[in-house]
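Input record (one chain):
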Amino acid sequence: MQTVISVGATVVGALFGRKMRSVGAVCRAATAMRGAGRAAKEKGGIARAGERVGALEERLDSLEADLQDDLAALKVPIDTDALAVNEGKVAPRKSDLAVEELAIVWVTWRVSESVVRERA
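The corresponding structure, as predicted from the sequence alone:
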C-alpha cells in the first residue's frame, strides 16, 4: 500500500509540480518503482510460501496416517507358538565380563537322619 501511495505521489508531483523534469522527481519515481518491484517480489514469495505450507501439511497428514497404521500393526498380538527358536552357543568374550564386587559367604547346612540337607 505504501508503494502505491509513493508511486501516485511521484506521478502527481511530476505532472503538477513546478519542475516537470527535475532530477528529484526522476529519483523519486525510480525509488517508487523499486519499491513496487520489491512489493511484487514479496507477494510472489508469499504465494510460494503458501503453496509450500500446503504441500508440507499434506505430507504431515500422510506421515501421521502411516504412523497410525504402524502403531495399529504393533498392537496385533504375537503368536508365540508360530515363532521359530534356533539354538546356538555364544562364547563369552573377555571384554563382556566384568567383576564389580567380590564376596565370600558361609552357609551352614546340616544333614538330618533321613539324609535331607537343611539350612541351619
